[in-house]
Structure formats: structure tokens, C-alpha cells
Specification:
There is one protein chain. The protein is of the alpha/beta class. The protein has two domains: about 210 residues, NAD(P)-binding Rossmann-like Domain (Rossmann fold, 3-Layer(aba) Sandwich), CATH 3.40.50; about 140 residues, Rossmann fold, CATH 3.40.50.720. About 40% of the residues lie in helices and about 15% in strands. The protein has 16 helices and 15 strands. The N and C termini lie far apart (about 60 Å). The protein binds uridine-5'-diphosphate-glucuronic acid.
Length: about 450
């Protein structure tokens, strides 16, 4: 395997994972960020992101001399051993969705402005962020119009190739996903550059899809939107199960044995959230809109998800008041889990918080508990509230005086809580488990009424 000199610009969740993992594959990696304090922390092995194995990998690869951190892309360029040039530049800077579904490429632009003219001929610039179709082409255009600081005239960089190499990392298992990928996707109109990027991952032995840039860019959306569709389908099916007296667990197990469907990603829940699926479903709708294509299936996927939140609120209302139209005014509710899924402290687009907002609108009083916020960060005290939900130190305190406990994320610890202690702390013994994670028999033994999603006998 050829060890390559790789520069990664941006040390967020994607950039840092990419840098540390590529170093672990034997490449010489220099990561650049504009945040000096962050670079300083990374040099000391302090990783701010909650991601299993990442901090260890960063320390290990830094000590092995394969991974280093610098402030600024320009500095990174001159930081390789023996003053040699970077061969591959990964752009892992934010590319937020701007107006009309066009990615805001200001961060990419500023990196290119800084180093575009200085890149060695033959360098491959790789776009790893999730970006609308056409971004690789726009990046190539930017590169081709870059100007050197010394030389105000346009410096054409048609000798630098642009490649799209989307990531498929899940929060909470990013390192594992990077080092054990289902596939590697590399898209470029420059075949040679695409093959060089694919070769970076050769040791992983994953199936590799070599394609054009637009297909690679679309593939990322296609994957996330398909996953979202799978979940909306399961959530709708769970509702149907309730109406016809079937059981969603049995139904998904049964269909999952069909290898064309698969068992994974079939758990019903309070709706999908996080920083990727909601953003990417909307972005693909925009892509479709601008291509004059009405993507009804995707629209229905999103609508089903929005509706799921209200459906959970309706379930709580019915369980607590016994009526579909009962009032939740001043009803105290305990929310277990606020993050968008277990294993992360990420609250972005969290279904739990969306449901909390609806419950608050309905007049409920909320107390939450989430194991991700038991300890404060950097020695600070833990937060006392999150988006208007007061935080308790543990599940029992959250449940004190509550008329129902809602399980909103699938933290494993919720399965093994002492539910009889929780039951005795509550005003009324109701548990609405929106993830179907706590064994209903355990809840019933503790004297609690268990309400899940799509479960037989609960509808
Ligand atoms: C997602 C994709 O799974 C990754 O492949 C992709 O790389 C990533 O987005 C990204 O674009 O960067 P992530 O957002 O970390 O990863 O979260 P997932 O594990 O996919 O979960 C998404 C949502 O679906 C969560 O709210 C989760 O609770 C929910 N979910 C997931 C369910 O409700 N049921 C399931 O069976 C699985």
C-alpha cells in the first residue's frame, strides 16, 4: 500500500474521524482548523466530540507521528515531512444549506483562496461533506479561478482534480463505520484522481463504487433518504398494527428475514432526527424541485415523520386522560432521553425535543433526564435545563410526581432501571415507551401500565 500525504481541512466530526482513521491506515495526515484553541486541545489529545474510540485513535496516531494538527490550511500545506507537498486535500469544512437548496460554499471558497494557488500540480481535492449535486463542479470552477496572493492574475488550476467522496458515518459509531465501511464511493470526472482516492482506503477491502461526481453526490442523499423512508414506513406500519391488533416487532422481524429488506433500521420510534436525515431529506426535495421533479414519495416520508411527533403526543394524552381530547394542562411528565438517539450528546433536530415542545404547548410540565448530560463538560456543572425542559440528576428524580414517563431515546440503561422504584415515585403509573425498548412485562411487574408503539394488546 502507498502511504499518501493527506491534508484534512476542518476538524469537526467528519474531518477528525477522517484524519485519525486515514492515519491509522498508514497515511501521513495533517489536519487543519481555524480554531486555535481547538487545535491546541487536539494536540494534547483532547477531543470535544463524543465518539467512541476517536480520542484514543487521535492520541495513538499523534504519538505514532502520523497525525498532526495545525492552525490554518496554509500552514498545513507546509507541514509534511521533508517539506513535501500534500497529495490529497480533504475538504471537511461546513457547507450549510443556503437559499434555494444551494450549499453555502463560503468555507470551501476561503480554503481555496488560501491554498488553491499553492497546491502542487496533480493534487486531488476531495469533497467529503454532504453537498448538493453540482458542488464538485463548482469547487473545480472555484479552483480554476483562484488567485495567488503574490500574483493578482488568475491562476488556472486545471492541474488539480476534484473528487466527491461522501461519508456514510453514523454518530456514535463513526470510527467503526469508517474502518468497516459497507462501501466506498468515489466520484470524479477525472478517473485517475478517483482511483487515487479509492486507493487510500484499499486496506479496508470494501466494495468501491467509482462513478462521476454528480452520481457520488446524489448517492449520499439517496442513501439517507432511503433510510428515512424505511423508518417512516415502519412508523406508519406500527400505527396500522395498533388498528388491526398486530404486533410491529413480529412484523418487522418477519419482513427483515427477507434479505432484500434486511433486519436493520426497522425499529419504530418517535420519528427520525439528528443532523443528517432531516437536512438531507429536505435537500433532496430541493434538488428534485430544481430539476422539475415532484418527488411525492420523499414528501410523504417527511410528512409521516412530522406527524409521528403529534402521534406520540396524542398517545400520551389518551394514556393520561383516558380521552383523545383530554387536557394535558399542568400534567407533569418525565422525559427519559433528549438526544436524537442513544450514544450521543447531539440534540440537533431531536424528536424528543420536538415532542417536548408540543407537550409544553399543550400545557404539560416537563422534567427530563438524559445520561449524556449527567456530567458537565470541561469541568463545568451539568446543564439544569435543555430547551425549556428542566433536567433531573437521574431517572427516579425525573419521575417524581409524574403522571407519565416517556422513554424517548433508546439508551440501554433505560432497560435496566429499577422500574418499581420509579413506579413508587410517580403520581400515576404510566410509561409511554416510544422506542419499544423497555420490556413491557418488566413494567407491568412493577405495577406500571406500558404503552408502546404498534404492540399487540396495547392499541
Ligand atoms: C445517518 C446515517 O445513518 C449515516 O449512514 C450517515 O452517514 C449520517 O446520517 C450522515 O449523513 O452523516 P446518524 O444521523 O448518525 O446517521 O443517525 P442514524 O443512526 O442513522 O439515526 C437517524 C435517526 O433515525 C435517529 O433519530 C434514530 O433514532 C432514528 N432511528 C434509527 C430509528 O428511529 N429507528 C431505527 O431503527 C434506526
Amino acid at each position: 500500500m502507498f502511504a499518501r500525504r493527506v491534508m484534512v481541512v476542518g476538524t469537526g466530526y467528519v474531518g477528525l474521524t477522517t484524519g485519525a482513521c486515514l492515519a491509522s491506515l498508514g497515511h501521513e495526515v495533517v489536519c487543519a482548523d481555524i480554531d486555535e484553541a481547538k487545535v491546541e486541545r487536539l494536540r494534547r489529545g483532547v477531543v470535544d466530540i463524543v465518539e467512541p474510540g476517536l480520542a484514543e485513535l487521535v492520541s495513538e496516531q499523534t504519538s505514532a507521528g502520523r497525525l498532526s494538527f495545525v492552525v490554518g490550511a496554509g500552514v498545513a500545506l507546509g507541514s509534511f515531512e521533508d517539506g513535501r507537498a500534500a497529495e490529497v486535500l480533504f475538504l471537511c469544512v461546513p457547507t450549510p444549506m443556503g437559499a434555494g437548496g444551494v450549499a453555502d460554499l463560503r468555507a470551501v471558497e476561503s480554503v481555496i483562496e488560501e491554498v488553491g494557488a499553492e497546491l502542487a500540480p496533480g493534487t486531488v481535492v476531495v469533497n467529503k461533506s454532504t453537498v448538493p449535486v453540482g458542488t464538485a463542479a463548482r469547487t473545480a470552477e472555484l479552483l480554476d479561478w483562484t488567485r495567488s496572493a503574490a500574483e493578482p492574475d488568475r491562476v488556472s488550476r486545471s492541474d488539480v482534480a476534484v473528487v466527491s467522496n461522501p461519508e456514510f458515518l453514523r454518530e456514535g459509531s463513526a470510527v467503526k463505520d469508517f474502518l468497516g465501511p459497507d462501501r466506498i464511493v468515489v466520484g470524479s470526472d477525472n478517473q485517475d484522481a478517483a482511483e487515487r482516492v479509492a486507493a487510500l482506503y484499499a486496506r479496508l477491502g470494501a466494495p468501491t463504487v467509482l462513478t462521476d461526481a454528480a452520481s457520488a453526490e446524489l448517492m449520499k442523499y439517496a442513501a439517507n433518504c432511503f433510510l428515512a423512508m424505511k423508518l417512516s414506513y415502519v412508523n406508519a406500519m406500527a400505527e396500522l398494527c395498533e388498528r388491526v391488533g398486530a404486533d410491529i416487532g413480529d412484523v418487522t422481524e418477519g419482513i427483515g428475514y427477507d434479505r432484500r429488506i434486511g433486519q436493520a433500521f426497522l425499529s419504530p420510534g418517535p420519528g427520525w432526527g439528528g443532523s443528517c436525515l432531516p437536512k438531507d431529506t429536505h435537500a433532496l426535495l430541493q434538488v428534485a424541485d430544481s430539476a422539475d421533479f415532484e418527488f411525492r414519495l420523499l414528501r410523504a416520508t417527511i410528512d409521516t415523520n412530522t406527524r409521528q411527533r403529534q402521534r406520540i403526543v396524542d398517545k400520551v394524552r389518551l394514556a393520561v386522560t383516558g380521552k383523545r381530547t383530554g387536557s394535558l394542562s399542568r400534567v407533569r411528565l418525565a422525559l427519559l432521553g433528549l438526544t436524537f438517539k442513544a450514544g450521543t450528546d447531539d440534540l440537533r433536530d431531536s424528536p424528543a425535543l420536538a415532542i417536548a415542545a408540543l407537550l409544553r404547548q399543550a400545557g404539560a410540565e416537563l422534567v427530563g433526564f438524559d445520561p449524556a448530560f449527567v456530567d458537565g463538560k470541561d469541568g463545568a456543572a451539568p446543564p439544569t435545563e435543555i430547551e425549556g425542559v428542566a433536567l433531573a440528576a437521574d431517572a427516579v428524580s425525573a419521575a417524581q410526581g409524574a403522571e407519565a414517563v416517556l422513554v424517548l431515546t433508546e439508551w440501554p440503561m433505560f432497560r435496566t432501571l429499577d422500574w418499581s422504584v420509579i413506579a413508587s415515585a410517580m403520581k400515576r403509573p404510566i410509561v409511554v415507551d416510544t422506542r419499544n425498548v423497555v420490556d413491557p412485562a418488566t413494567l407491568r411487574r412493577a405495577g406500571l401500565t406500558a404503552v408502546g408503539l404498534g404492540r399487540r394488546g396495547e392499541g
